[in-house]
Amino acid sequence: MIETPRLHEALRLVGYGLSVFPLQGMRASPSGTLVCTCGSPKCEHPGKHPLPALAPNGLKNATTCADTVERWFSKARLANIGMATGPVIVLDVDPRHGGDESLHQLEAAYGPLPLTWRVLTGGGGEHIFFLPPDGIEIRNSAGDRGGLAPGLDIRGVGGYVVAPSSLHVSGRTYEWSVDHHPDETPLAPLPDWMMAALARPQAGAARSASDWRQLISEGVTNGSRNDAVTRLTGHLLRRFVDPTMVHELVQAWNLARCAPPLQPEEVTKAVASIARKELKRREARDGIR
Ligand SMILES: [Zn+2]
User: Fold this and answer.
1) Has domain 85-201 been given CATH number 3.30.2250?
2) CA of 24 to the centre of ligand 1 (A)
3) How many whole angstroms from 51 Cα to the centroid of ligand 1?
4) Domain spans of the chain?
């Protein structure tokens, strides 16, 4: 076996217990430019989408089996490395969409990010790695669609990132940042403020049924009404109740149980705002790159 840099890095990730799978790579075209090995002149994600010949189910084929990984990356020397996220959460800082500036603002507000693994992407951005919190599922979210902030995407459960040694369309490779290399740097837990912005409770981990029953039967008083309307609306929408029906139910509950009730216009505004967020969240969750 010849250990190419690609195979070396793939095995390093596997050694950390992370699952990898082969992506399309980049090769030189006759004119000298780099093109995606998928061969499509219109490829929208060059070097970033799965290699079907070896991983027909893409991310689902991701493995920590070193033998399989050796076979894949010995066979497909140009293949880039896809690394499944979820066991690690990756903050993808995309400077083309203002990610640098967004991160700067968030760090000014919440304090600098902890020392942790970082990858310099071939596109001039950064992948910042974190340990996920216990019992809370962090899924993918895009910065401009219900995520953290513009240019800041999160890769979590159901997502993947392109891993170090992979070749970017720019001609640069993804590399571990020398001061944030996993051999010398601990993997930091996801900062609390980031978790609060992204947390999506797992089924059963949220409020208990009796809490909801109490909220519904007893209502709330001035001061908790907006919060209760927000939670109730979110709860119903996440169970795929039709938004119009949610609106009617929450209006009726407000009149019957809130003391004093909120103005109906306020309820309408709150429900609409949450419905918009929920739709964005579903889009972001269902769209992986
Ligand atoms: Zn392609």
Assistant:
1) yes
2) 6
3) 9
4) 1-84, 85-201, 207-286
